[in-house]
């Protein structure tokens, strides 16, 4: 599925709470104990690991702000998928579902771009999930997965071509 031009601006708005100050203390205020923590993005994953918060699911692509980088090290089980920029592939959705049925922590290494994978992650995440992703040059977005978020992200996915 390909991201149409008319959805690009809509996706620039954060799905959840935008934190401009991303200290461990500030982030921890928004994460309930025993949450299924999901990070999408290399810098976000690296920041959480650096804080000693090991995400149950980590989705990375080896890029940060379009620049190549080494994906954050994690002892998590590795899964792989292909997901070109501005797309969500059936393979990436299958890999995300596989991750949710596997013993955490899991790290999905994306060949391509992971940004849009926040959408299927929010649709298929377990009940107690919290998704974290970076909002470029603004801060960190924290999304507690609720039925409202599932509906919104399903609607976004349905509108892709």
TrEMBL record:
One of its GO terms (molecular function) is GTP binding. One of its GO terms (biological process) is coenzyme A biosynthetic process. It comes from the Archaea. Pfam families: DUF359. It is an enzyme of class 2 (transferase). The keyword Kinase applies. Its EC number is 2.7.1.237. Pathway: Cofactor biosynthesis; coenzyme A biosynthesis. It catalyses: 3'-dephospho-CoA + GTP = GDP + CoA + H(+). GTP binds at residues 42, 61, 114. Keywords: Coenzyme A biosynthesis, GTP-binding, Kinase, Nucleotide-binding, Transferase. Belongs to the GTP-dependent DPCK family. Catalyzes the GTP-dependent phosphorylation of the 3'-hydroxyl group of dephosphocoenzyme A to form coenzyme A (CoA). PANTHER family: GTP-DEPENDENT DEPHOSPHO-COA KINASE, UPF0218 PROTEIN TK1697. This is GTP-dependent dephospho-CoA kinase.
